[in-house]
């Protein structure tokens, strides 16, 4: 089996945009519906703090199935969000969510050892992003330490959900296969990651700065940046599906039906 060329990472991004353009309204509606569900869950005390994180693999399968349907020329409906909850793999998907949450906490724990908890307090909302505090701390190194600790986990979880739901693998086997699949195609994933840094981080930052200089209006920045952020997030899920189909065999049946579920729309 030959390795994918490095430029494939850029093609994944381009094909993600192409997939989104086929049904932009439907995919955007799906994402908005997802956001409303997350807001509703977030209202629940205690549970609302961890449930959205644990449910990431579950809802990622909804977006992957949506991308598969778009590629097959089928219409996408918001009810697709609830399909993974009726999948035989739901327990395994929830277990993946718990494991992802645990490894994320482990990575944050590593950052605490570096900067004494400054980064943790900032991302948890316990304190604001005070430039003076940041300058006097090792927050930059803490972020790097957390990223290095979480990198192997992100490789292990990248394809774990679709391998569990579509290829019917156990959690341990799915994590194993995911890690080595990403490791094998590391050059393509490196280009893919750099492309997303340019499109998902640098582009929005430059756009917000230009809007601030031109309009000097916070409301104008929000009006432009919110739809842009939503679009990029949906494209990210679409490109994720493209990476999967290039690395692993596509199920013989359509993904939703392969899970043993039929949808009436």
From TrEMBL:
User: Which parts pass through the membrane?
Assistant: 92-120, 140-160, 189-215, 221-244
Alphabetical keyword list: Membrane, Transmembrane, Transmembrane helix
Does the keyword section mention GTP-binding?
no
Which InterPro entries does its entry note? BPSS1780-like (IPR047798)
Q: What is the designated name of this protein?
A: Transmembrane protein
Supply the source organism's classification: Bacteria, Pseudomonadati, Pseudomonadota, Betaproteobacteria, Burkholderiales
UniProt KW Membrane keyword = yes
Q: Which domain of life is it from?
A: Bacteria
